[in-house]
């Protein structure tokens, strides 16, 4: 079965990682503006102050998208750019995204708008600790209302929260993102509030009668058992409940998984249900599941855990979590998969894992899936004649597109495929060393240079994929 005629061949980005213009035209500070300025929080203390300057170069970048034939682009709105303090509308910020959306439409590129990609207004973090307070539900919903009113007649696809499991997990468990704490109960509390805010945003979308589809993007890694030992299988099942179903069941069913809740309860961890919470979650189920897929994860009986963390190239640049013990270590332990090669960043390369992901989501939830991120972070080299020969990226993406096609043939409904990312961009923790784009941006941690754009070999490869609707790989 071939890809449907209206399949979205896209790419993706996040405001903080590309825009720059950190304090221009009335933009307020985000938690990431603050966090990345604290020495030691990012590789070589790099920040998104300038990033790749999409704020000034968006027309040039969208012209490159047009040249490629890209038919969808997923980008995020910076909350503090359109509401500096999280509440007061900044007309210049609102106008910027009108210009971006209009330029995309003019170029024949379908805009996919991500409402929240981690850059919370610092003012709300200062006022009530951000995602730890139920106050944010009202403020986030008002932010959504502004975006729906402004862009609702132009944008058909909306992503509410990007990788809620990652921004809460890295912020409240692994101490790698703001607010940089490790407290599993606080993590579950903040995550529950984020789930309520997500449901409120989706409910409002329907209440306002916005034409289009809405759903969150979830960072999903299908779980494998290290061996056929029943203890490893139970560890894998535990991980699936606590690492995946705890979010996706809420998104697609409007309720938490019974076993996942009981596993946490047995560890002394509880979700703080208040009157009305369960009804709100039921009222905010998704139209589609956004899937951010990078790798699968293999699990072993925690009694058999071995501390064999691979270092590799990434150890030279990555900011690594120092947190050693978390409550769920009693339920499962991660293990290496002996059958998979690794990226420069020691992420497992597993195209079949994408097919597994699509099938599992389809089987459990029966909703359409938008692959909102998938890509290869690698060290790229710009040659003297301005080329980047990234056959490794082409091979990675080709295998993943083949896996999508196989999953569609299995019966999965896939709306589109957004690679991460179109342009090289600022990595939250790894500066500019970890490159994902089809377009090389000439800058590094020490020097912004001229921020010149160069088309990589993968640019021309994806151009052919789009032109042939996935037939020519």
From TrEMBL:
It comes from the Bacteria. The keyword tRNA processing does not apply. One of its GO terms (molecular function) is hydrolase activity, acting on glycosyl bonds. Its EC number is 3.2.1.-. Keywords: Glycosidase, Hydrolase. InterPro entries: GH, GH_1_N_CS, Glyco_hydro_1, Glyco_hydro_1_AS. The active site is at 373 (nucleophile). Gene3D superfamilies: Glycosidases. Belongs to the glycosyl hydrolase 1 family. This is Glycoside hydrolase family 1 protein. It comes from Vibrio rumoiensis.
């Amino acid at each position: 079965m071939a890809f449907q005629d209206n399949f979205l061949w896209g790419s993706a980005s996040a405001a903080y990682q590309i825009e720059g213009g950190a304090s221009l035209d009335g933009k307020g500070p985000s938690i990431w503006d603050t966090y990345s300025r604290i020495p030691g929080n990012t590789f070589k203390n790099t920040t998104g102050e300038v990033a790749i300057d999409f704020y000034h170069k968006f027309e040039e970048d969208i012209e490159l998208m047009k040249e490629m034939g890209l038919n969808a682009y997923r980008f995020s709105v910076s909350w503090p750019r359109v509401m500096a303090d999280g509440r007061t509308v900044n007309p210049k910020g609102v106008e910027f995204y009108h210009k971006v959306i209009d330029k995309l439409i003019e170029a024949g590129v379908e805009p996919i708008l991500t409402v929240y990609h981690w850059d919370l207004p610092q003012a709300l973090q200062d006022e009530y600790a951000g995602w730890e307070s139920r106050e944010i539900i009202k403020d986030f919903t008002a932010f959504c209302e502004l975006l729906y009113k402004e862009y609702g007649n132009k944008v058909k696809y909306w992503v509410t929260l990007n990788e809620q499991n990652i921004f809460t997990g890295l912020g409240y468990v692994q101490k790698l993102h703001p607010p940089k704490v490790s407290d599993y109960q606080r993590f579950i509390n903040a995550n529950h509030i984020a789930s309520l805010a997500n449901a409120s945003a989706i409910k409002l979308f329907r209440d306002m009668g916005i034409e289009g589809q809405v759903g969150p993007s979830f960072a999903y890694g299908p779980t494998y058992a290290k061996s056929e030992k029943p203890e490893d299988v139970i560890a894998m099942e535990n991980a699936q409940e606590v690492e995946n179903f705890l979010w996706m069941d809420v998104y697609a069913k409007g309720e938490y998984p019974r076993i996942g809740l009981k596993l946490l309860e047995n560890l002394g961890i509880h979700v703080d249900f208040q009157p009305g919470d369960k009804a709100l979650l039921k009222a905010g189920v998704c139209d589609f599941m956004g899937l951010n897929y990078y790798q699968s994860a293999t699990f072993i009986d925690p009694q058999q855990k071995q501390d064999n963390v691979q270092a590799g190239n990434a150890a030279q640049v990555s900011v690594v979590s120092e947190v050693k013990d978390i409550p769920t270590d009693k339920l499962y332990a991660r293990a290496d998969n002996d059958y998979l090669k690794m990226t420069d960043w020691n992420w497992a390369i597993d195209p079949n894992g994408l097919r597994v992901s699509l099938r599992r989501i389809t089987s459990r939830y029966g909703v359409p899936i938008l692959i909102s991120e998938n890509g290869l972070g690698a060290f790229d080299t710009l040659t003297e004649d301005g080329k980047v020969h990234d056959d490794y990226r082409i091979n990675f993406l080709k295998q993943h597109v083949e896996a999508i096609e196989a999953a569609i043939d299995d019966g999965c409904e896939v709306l589109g495929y957004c690679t991460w990312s179109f342009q090289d961009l600022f990595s939250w923790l790894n500066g500019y060393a970890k490159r994902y784009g089809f377009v090389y941006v000439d800058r590094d941690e020490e020097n912004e240079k001229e921020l010149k754009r160069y088309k990589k070999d993968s640019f021309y490869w994806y151009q052919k994929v789009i032109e042939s609707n996935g037939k020519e790989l």
